[in-house]
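In response to reviewer comment 3 from the previous cycle, which asked for concrete evidence that the modeling workflow produces usable outputs, we include below a single protein chain processed end to end. The sequence was submitted unchanged, and the resulting structure tokens are shown without manual editing.
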Amino acid sequence: MNTPDHLETTGGAIHERTAVELRDLIASGEVSSREVTEHFLARIGEQNPRLGSFITVTAEQAVAAADAADDVAVRARAAGAPLAPLHGIPLAYKDLWDVEGAPTTFGSAALPAAVATEDSPLVARLRADGAISLGKTQIPEFGLNCYSENLIAPPARNPLDPSLSPGGSSGGSAAAVAAGLLPVAPGNDGGGSVRIPASACGLIGLKPGLGTVPADLANGRVDRFGAPRFVVSGPLARTAEDAGLLMDSLTGTTGYLQAARSARPADGRPLRIGLTRASPFEGRYPIALDPTAEAALQAGVALLEAAGHRVEAADIRYDNRYPEAFQTIWTAGLAEAGLPDEAAPALMELTRTFRARAIACPETEKRAAAAVLQKIAEDCRAQWGRYDALLTPAMAQTPRPLGWYTSHDADFDYELQCRYTPYTSVVNVAGTPAVTVPTLRTAGGLSMGIQLTGANGSERGLLALAAQLMHAANGM
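The workflow returned the following structure tokens.
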């Protein structure tokens, strides 16, 4: 597959362009969706054997969809009509979402990979806005973990250092965006699964508040035990503007791209930002920042203060029941999945172990855990709400090597995950939005950053703040 020479424009190669730039190039007719799609497919063909970002590539379907998009674009330009927000833009989807005509594996060898007959609601939303699907990206089994390794395909690798994990569960998507195999990508986040790989790969990762993306409410706001729904969908992007473009489409609204483009949170008012290193896991596990994580946090403080914001220590305290209650609800779905017992030996050790415990756990304990989490969620929103945003490290450690978790038994695997990412899951429990922003590049080329958590409805402000910090960092 050859990339046409004219794709090498004055702004750089197509994969170096932002998603917003590509949207405008396609809309103007300077390049076609087919040319852009074939360019990214060629990149995937070259880089995926090294990075393991994709489980499935649907090249034939993608080119056909791009041709159809180009026909629509020609007619629209002739009529002076606008194109859909993502018209002709290549995307890919975690292999947890159904994409019509592509197999869905859930990252598991325990289930047959059935070809989907229709799109998941989120995929349908983005397809309606003109996005072109290039395939399905690598995940951990059932999207459970903060790494992207399973038994069905090579592990996803971090483009900044392929010996390291890109994080998870949206690790394949994050690696693809960071490596220029995609311009931008949707992920979903049930305990950090957008923010973790964004941090590991040097991207912006936005976790919206529950209900901001309508497709996330397909099963309601609480699970059947009464616990808050953890999983929401959000963008992985190289720029805040690209994240805003995708958020406009995910939500079916406008204003996210505009907010990111303004880079003026609160219309320029200085923000009061609370800084905490407290984690709800610290009563159970030894949570400690490595020096690089602390340096990234201090770099974030410096950027915030340089932008005129006030950063102050926040006395945040967490209920010591959090670790047990979260783990109970986080794994409860494994008992609900309808997986036959004879398939259990094909599961990864962590999944198999926690599935057995979830099945054995009495429903009364799950309901009690759900009630604890609802109380913790309310308490977190009250504590965090004293500030315009709450600042924490993004991760407590640099990205971990491949096999770091899976070389241990299930309990230590889980502990290592909590120690790597001790600040993300509680935001899912609280149901509030948060964004991770890169603030430090190490001498070895790794990226580290910060997490900023806001009140419900503050996603646009968080994107504006992320854009402000990225601009400041690039100017330093």
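The first strand starts at residue 54 and ends at 57. We consider this sufficient to address the reviewer's concern, and the full set will be provided in the supplementary archive.
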